[in-house]
Design brief:
Layout lengths: L1 H13 L3 E8 L4 E6 L2 H6 L11 H4 L4 H17 L3 E8 L6 E14 L2 E10 L1 H9 L1
Antiparallel strand pairs: 1-2, 1-5, 3-4, 4-5
Amino acid sequence: MIDEKISLEKIVEKIPGVVFQFEICNSGITRFPFVSKGFDDIFEVPADNFKENASLALSRIHPEDYQALMYNVFDCYKSGKTFTHTFRVVSSTTKKTIWLKISAIPESYNPNCGIWFGYMSDLTNEIEKYNFS
């Protein structure tokens, strides 16, 4: 059992991209109770900063993409649908645009909050290659 736990932890740590748990409540509170190490690289802030409040991560979303992303989040929250969305975040240090794709499966654990378990991948290289070829 211990070996399985260590293996799973290593997979989550080493996998490219981000494995995450996202929570949103009727009160409007959003948080990431769990994110893998890749989250730090994309959002340039230690993941622990997002456990109780996701607003700092959400503030990195490209202004042109924010409204559509949040609409999709709330739509999936209300309907219980699987969440899939492609959007951009802006690096706070380099101002570089990073393209991300999120796929997450919802789970309702109480009527006031929704929770998703998902994966976030960096599509930047693929999009830049497509746009410049």
